[in-house]
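Sequence design from tokenized structure. All designs in this work follow the same two-part layout: the structure record, then the generated sequence. An example of the structure record is given first.
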């Protein structure tokens, strides 16, 4: 009778992340044992705290999309074009600051930079709350405050770069989709909350007295900014004490700047400008566009709908891209965006006709939904593109492959932040394009046609480089 074989020894449990204070010195999410035993829990904690901070950043960034509409009613004599400038300038400063924020996390650490960049939102939140209470506040002061709200837009680049380091490649699409999608809800949050909080003395006498509307109704427009102040303080403290820095994500700006020589960094930037640039640009300008095109409609009652569905659709885009492929989902997204933009064009007033506000709103809801899905799918393409690129360069040498994985992770994190910077310029160019079209032609039709042409170019780009059968990098 043969001896019974000894049972195989159980695998050693994965070691927890090594940490020193809030600095994790060993992190390998691609190790399944490590990820199941400890990595997933740590990554998810950082993700949810990041989402809360990013939600507030988007709320502050987009506060002018609602406040600008209300300024004429409380005594500020600004033209429609000046109001479009106030809605557009946060996009310009936010996009420009994102270029620097994109490289900040590997230099300063994700926990530290998230806490400090969130706390910086107190500057525009308090400034706007004070300025709107004095009808003698100069337009130049409002322009400066509009530029300062760009600090909220800049936070997206560092937030997405930070979260990309925590998750394995197989879950990046979903994780980045949740971070961005739920963070993006700050846009609809501000557009939904502001009409409610300005209607009452919600924050008491310390926040200041009311302003009078032409019909005698009282409003507290300062609440649109002040309401975010206590939440910003809480989010900053939670980030400082609850998040982590990853030593494995450390890199100098010089090490990250190699992405400027990568062709696919610029190609993906063009795609993301089409998706996120449209999402944030329409969010910034839709209320003013509605006011200019359908004067009988109160735009603040509907402005939150589009950003809400766009934000909720983003995690779906990441999830779909994880399963179907980012390039396929992105290609369909741009087709739908082009058709929806044509629907907007058909619903606008034309030739003396009143147009169809119902059709206009429905087309924008479809457009926002498509931008949200596209945001998630484009971001899912990034780690696939750079991982494939570096693996091909490494060949079959094990040492070269190990270095390729590190290079792909470092460059992918930098690209995630940088493309968000390029795309954020949509928050400036979309409202300005609408404003210029209205100023030059009396209608926004020319602007919408320009956006349709851009979507057609994105369809050609994603098909040629990433989606066709013999694409350069199937993504």
């Amino acid at each position: 009778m043969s001896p019974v074989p000894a049972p195989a020894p159980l695998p050693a449990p994965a070691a927890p992340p090594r940490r020193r204070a809030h600095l994790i010195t060993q992190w390998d999410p691609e190790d399944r044992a490590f990820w199941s035993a400890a990595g997933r829990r740590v990554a998810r904690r950082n993700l949810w705290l990041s989402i809360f901070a990013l939600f507030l950043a988007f709320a502050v960034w987009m506060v002018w999309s609602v406040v600008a509409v209300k300024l004429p009613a409380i005594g500020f004599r600004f033209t429609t074009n000046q109001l479009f400038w106030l809605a557009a300038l946060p996009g310009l400063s936010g996009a420009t600051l994102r270029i620097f924020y994109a490289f900040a996390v590997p230099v300063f650490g994700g926990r530290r930079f998230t806490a400090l960049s969130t706390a910086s939102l107190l500057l525009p939140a308090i400034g706007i709350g004070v300025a709107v209470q004095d009808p003698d506040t100069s337009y130049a002061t409002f322009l400066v405050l509009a530029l300062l709200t760009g600090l909220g837009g800049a936070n997206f680049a560092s937030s997405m770069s930070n979260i990309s380091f925590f998750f394995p490649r197989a879950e990046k699409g979903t994780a980045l989709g949740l971070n961005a999608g739920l963070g993006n809800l700050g846009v609809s949050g501000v557009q939904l909350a502001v009409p409610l909080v300005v209607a009452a003395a919600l924050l008491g006498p310390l926040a200041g007295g009311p302003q009078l509307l032409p019909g005698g109704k009282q409003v507290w427009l300062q609440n649109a900014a002040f309401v975010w102040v206590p939440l910003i303080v809480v989010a900053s403290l939670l980030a400082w004490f609850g998040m982590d820095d990853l030593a494995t994500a450390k890199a100098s700006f010089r090490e990250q700047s190699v992405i400027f020589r990568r062709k696919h960094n610029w190609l993906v930037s063009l795609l993301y400008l089409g998706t996120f640039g449209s999402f944030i640009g329409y969010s910034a300008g839709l209320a003013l566009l509605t006011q200019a095109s359908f004067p009988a409609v109160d735009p603040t009652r509907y402005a939150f709908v589009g950003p809400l569905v766009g934000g909720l659709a983003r995690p779906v885009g990441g999830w779909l891209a994880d399963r179907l492929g980012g390039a396929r989902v992105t290609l369909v997204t741009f087709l739908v965006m082009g058709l929806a933009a044509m629907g907007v064009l058909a619903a606008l007033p034309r030739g003396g006709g009143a147009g169809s506000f119902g059709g206009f709103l429905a087309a924008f809801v479809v457009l926002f939904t498509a931008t949200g899905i596209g945001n998630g799918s484009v971001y899912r393409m990034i780690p696939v593109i750079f991982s494939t690129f570096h693996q091909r360069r490494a060949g079959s040498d094990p040492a070269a492959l190990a270095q390729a994985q590190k290079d792909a992770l470092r460059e992918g994190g930098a690209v995630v932040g940088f493309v968000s910077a390029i795309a954020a310029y949509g928050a400036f160019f979309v409202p300005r394009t609408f404003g210029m079209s209205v100023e030059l032609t009396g209608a926004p039709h020319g602007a919408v046609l320009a956006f349709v042409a851009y979507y057609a170019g994105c369809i050609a780009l994603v098909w040629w480089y990433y989606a066709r059968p013999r694409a350069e990098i199937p993504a």
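Residues 255-474 form a domain with the Growth Hormone; Chain: A; fold (CATH 1.20.1250.20). We note this feature because it recurs in several other targets discussed in the main text.
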